[in-house]
Amino acid sequence: MKFHFIAFLVAIFPFHFYAQKDFNPQDFPSFKSVEEHFYENYNALEDGGLLYFEKRPEGYFVAMALEYSYEVRKKREMLWSYETRSFQKLKSYFSGSADIKNLRRVRNSTSNTHEFNFCAFAGYPGWQLDVVEYFGEKENLPDTLLYGLARAYTTHATNLISNRGGNIDKEKQFDLPKGNNSLTPEQLKTYREYFHAGHATFKKLSEQNPNFETIVGKIYIKYCNEVMNTFLQLLYFQNEEEARKELKHNLYDEFYINAAKNYLNSCPPNTILFTYGDNDTYPLLYVQAQLGFRTDVLLVNTSLLKLDRYIDHLRKGVFDAAAYPLPFDASFYKDDKNIQVFTNLPGDKKENSSLDEAIKFIKNEENRFSTGNQRIASLPSKTLFIEINKKAIIKKNIVPISQRENIVDTIKWTIPQGYILKNDLALLGLITENNWKRPICIGATCRKSIFLGMEDYFHLEGLAYRFYPVKKNQETTYLMGGINVDESFKKVTKDFTWEGIDKIESGKKVYFSSYLILFTQLSNQLIIQGKNEKAEQILDLFIKIFPNEVIEYNYSFELIADLYFQLEEIEKAKAIVIQIAENFAEIENPSSWNINTFYRFKSQSHKYNSQKLNRILEKISW
């Protein structure tokens, strides 16, 4: 694949390894083995700071930084030499193995492990261009190098306009003004050239090896997500007109389209919906932007909510969705300002504080804690509360009719973390500024930490947890909060679309896990309510949608079997357990079964009095 800018870059930034005709990055040892060698022989912890690994054309290097910035890396030494294909003795690092107790802290300071495994070079400012310069014009690249090249293109494109990509070469980065239409025509052209080169390379790999696995699933979903990543970046750096030029027809397959629609249809009108990762954000954004579906929902990616430009973008409203309300002006969250707000700093702390009071406290510069030359924001208390006006809540139709008698006088919670980040602060600010005007939902695919300790006041409705002043009073498993039984039953049986589910592959499992939790917890609550026919209806629908041919049954399906057992549908329960056992019995290496696995199924055999299950177990050894 040839692009005119590659030749330009090579001419300006030549590397000595171009002269090495036999250069082969596959001769490099694995990143894991390099890490292990360092930790077995050196202890960087005695000197403090952060440890960085760098995979350069000359070999692997280590460096230390005394601040959270690659710009101040020091003590850079070659750890493994490409020329000699051997490890080198380090002079600036203490001999002796690293303290295992602190190993996690050091490992977390390294660059993205995924990039080390898949990219020829990684972990230092400007590695992306090194990869492009060396591999951009090469033909017949193996899968891994082709994937690394695609990542290099797209990561460099992102780094041209922001700090999101990591390991940024500041000299190459555009100096952009705040606001929309920030790129000049020439900058926009350069940005697009890199991203489009990445798109083309990802797509080429998907044609070369459709089963190539990435961190988000098979390679084609990575390609789709990168297209939408470009769309979103242009949406908040440039304008909607330029962003829409990136949209493509029939980008995602039917599974992702319908899963995205189900996700959005889990939300009431005019909802502010929080998502977390690529696979639960970009398909939703696609069906909104390309298909015009549920554009009243304001889609908010919590990972991006740390960026001031993204916050500004949301505050203007997106598509048909109203603006994201916040009690802060732009100067409060500009650049890296208030990137962290601590909850456990020394000084007088209140036992608890209202959320309104806490927001005012954070905004007041006089309440900052001084450390060195920094002034750090903190909360007045880790325990926060919101007083509830029940009449106003009922009038605004915030709480389902069936739960209105359970409306609390006060929502009270404790933030578990020692600090919160800018995106967490944006959620707290939203709650106080919104004041129940619009529904707030958090996606079922999100991490528990996003709830900030408020999960008992979030209730699952389909694939989204909705925030309202009723405290969870249900016994549930695997749920972040409670579940709205009536609304979830309606969505599963009437509102959701189930076409396109033919095989659950790696990237689709994030949705499957959410479906599994929804169906099992809904059925469980229906059993508790004595609505056994509806509970069985939900379980039957789940098995119809997700037979063993769609997703191979494993331990997680025991939840379904147990619920059937509670309903005294023994044959249905037995069939699932037998299928799980048969799947495990077909494992190529039965010795991988451990004794716990064996006795797990042995107990199921007794429970269901199943001779067939006994026969399967007779074939197993460990």
Write the layout of secondary structure elements.
Layout: H1 4-12, H2 31-41, E1 42-43, E2 50-56, E3 59-65, E4 73-81, E5 86-87, E6 94-95, H3 100-107, H4 113-118, H5 127-135, H6 143-161, H7 185-208, E7 213-214, E8 217-218, H8 219-237, H9 240-244, H10 254-265, E9 272-275, H11 282-289, E10 298-301, H12 308-315, H13 330-333, E11 340-342, E12 353-354, H14 355-363, E13 369-371, E14 374-376, E15 383-387, H15 390-395, E16 410-414, E17 419-421, H16 422-434, E18 440-443, E19 458-461, E20 464-467, E21 482-483, H17 485-495, H18 509-528, H19 532-545, H20 558-566, H21 570-585, H22 595-608, H23 611-618
Parallel strand pairs: 9-10, 9-18, 12-15, 19-21
Antiparallel strand pairs: 1-6, 2-3, 3-4, 4-5, 7-8, 11-17, 13-14, 15-16, 18-20, 19-20
Helix pairs in contact: 1-5, 5-6, 6-7, 7-8, 8-11, 10-11, 17-18, 18-19, 18-20, 20-21, 21-23, 22-23
Describe this entry's structure for a reader:
The chain is built from 23 helices and 21 strands. It is globular and about 70 Å long. The model is unreliable at 1-21 and 103-111 (pLDDT under 50).
Share in β-strands: 5-15%
Instruction: Please count the beta strands (DSSP E, at least 2 residues each).
Output: 21
| Global shape | globular
Radius of gyration: 27 Å
How many helical stretches?
Answer: 23
> Quick one: biggest sheet?
6 strands, mixed
Strand order of the largest sheet: 10-9-18-20-19-21
The helical percent reads 40-55%
What ranges have pLDDT less than 50 throughout 5 or more consecutive residues?
Answer: 1-21, 103-111
Would you tell me the overall average pLDDT? Answer: 87
Taking the alpha carbons of the first and last residues, their distance comes to: 50 Å
Alpha-beta content class = alpha+beta
